[in-house]
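Re: the request from the purification team.
They wanted to know what the chain is likely to look like in 3D before they choose a buffer screen. I agreed to run a prediction and write the result into the notebook, where they can find it.
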Amino acid sequence: MKPLIAHRRPALRRRFFSFTLGATAALAGWTIPQIASAQRLGPSGLDEVATGSWTKLTNQPPFNTDSANLLTDGTVLVHQYNSNIWWKLTPDINGSYVNGTWSQMAAMQAGYAPLYFANAVLPDGRLLVEGGEYNNLQPVFTNQGAIYDPVANVWTQVNPPAGWANIGDSPGIVQPDGVFMMGQGGISSTKQVTFNASNLTWTAITNTGKADTYSEEGFGLLPNGKILTVDCQNIPNSEIYDPATLKWTSAGSTIVVLPDAGSLEIGPQILRPDGNMVAFGGVPHTAFYNSSTGTWTAGPNIPNNNDSADGPASLLPDGNILLPTSPCVFQGNVTFYIFDGITYTQAPATQSSLSLQSWQMRTLLLPTGQVLYLVADGRTKDVEVYTTTGRVNNDWRPRIKKVAATLTRGSTFQIRGAQFNGLSGGSDYGDDALSATNYPLVRITNTATHHVFYARTHDHSTMAVATGAANVSTMFDVPAAAETGASTIEVVANGIASKPKPVTIQ
C-alpha cells in the first residue's frame, strides 16, 4: 500500500509561466463543418505528425475544474474541484464548445467531495461516480458514491459494495454488455464488483485469479470485448479479464517496465485504430499490446526522460494520440506530444500547462473531434480545446443504415447502423479519472440555419469497440427545441461523425 498523500499534496505545488497562443484566436468561432474541412490526410491514410493548436474557451469557468465526462446529449459534465458541485458546458447553437456556456447543475450528497475517483457514463446516459482518493482534501479512501440522472438533474446516493470500506485508486470500466465493473484499489485487495444500474446494487465477482491488487492500475477495452490491465505490482506482467468467464489470465510480460518503482504510478492506455493498445508508463517507457496476436512489443521512450505518471491521453480523430508528459513522477513541467505509434512530435503548450505536471490536467474527446483540456490543480481556471489538422480515415466512421425519414420533436426513435461505438475508448487517465467516449451521439443540423442540436442517446445495443460491420443501434430523443424542416442527422463516436443522412424534423 502506498502512502495516501506522499505523492500528491493538492494546492501545495506551484510554478508560474505565461504562454499565449495568439495564432489560435481565429478558431474561436469555428463551426463543426469548418473544423472538419481544416483536416488533411497524410499519404498513408493516417497523418503521422499532424499539427494542431489550442483555443481558450470564450467563457472560462467560474469555478476550479476537475474531471469531466461527455454526456450523451453532447454536453460536458464537469466536477468542481474539492466539492460535491457539478457544472455543465453546453455548446452554442452552431455546435461550438469554444463559445459554449456554463450552468451549475445539481450537487451530490453533502459530505462527498472526492478527488481522483472512478466515473463512467452508463448505456442509459447516467453518470456513475465512485470513491475518491481524497475526500474534501482529507487523505482518506472514501467509499461514497453517487449516480446522476441528466434528464431529472438529480444525484442519487449509491451505497458501497458490501464490505468495502475504501474505494480509491480503483480502476473501472463499462464492459461491452453495458455493465460497469470496478476493482478495489487503495488497499491490498483483489476484490472486484459489477454494478446493477437498475437497482443501484453491487455484485461481488470472486475467485477471478487476479495476480496482484488493483491499486494504481487502469483498464483498457479490447476489440474482442476483453479487458487489459498492466500490473503495477506484479511487474512487468499484464493481465486480461474475460467478462464471459469472470476470470483474469496472464497477458504476458510488457517487455519494458511501465510502473514507477517507488510510487507504482502508471500512465493511460489508449487503443489505436490499428488494434494496438498503447500503454504509457509512469517512467519514460511505452509498450504496445497487439490485440490480434496477443503479444507485447516495446515502444519508443517518451522524449526528454518525461513520463505519464497519472496523466491523461486522448485519441485524436486522425488516429494519433495527444499526450501530456512531465518528468520524474510529479515533478517539472508538462510537455505535450502527438504520438503516431512511431514518433513523438512536440505539440503546443496551453496557456497554463507550462506550470503543471501531467496529473494536474484532464483531457476529453468532444463530438467535434477536438479535445477539451481542463486543469485539475484547485487553483487555475483554464479550459481550452485542441484542434488537429489531421484527417479521419473514412473507414473509421460510424455508418447509418436505418433511421426514420421524419422525426418528431420530443419523441424517441431508434437509429441503426455499424461502428456506432468507435474504434477505441477515446480518452483515458487510469485509476483516478475515467473519460471514455465509446458510445454513440446523435447530432442533428438544420439545413437552412446550420444550427446544431444533439439528441440524447440511451439504451445502446453494445458498448464494445471496433464492432466492424456488425449491426448496432441506439435510441435517441429528438430535442423539443430542435428547429423544424429539412435537416441532416449524424452518429458521432470519439469525435468521428458518420456521413450525414437527410431527415425532416416536425
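For the purification team: Confidence is low (pLDDT under 50) at residues 1-47.
Please add any questions underneath this entry.
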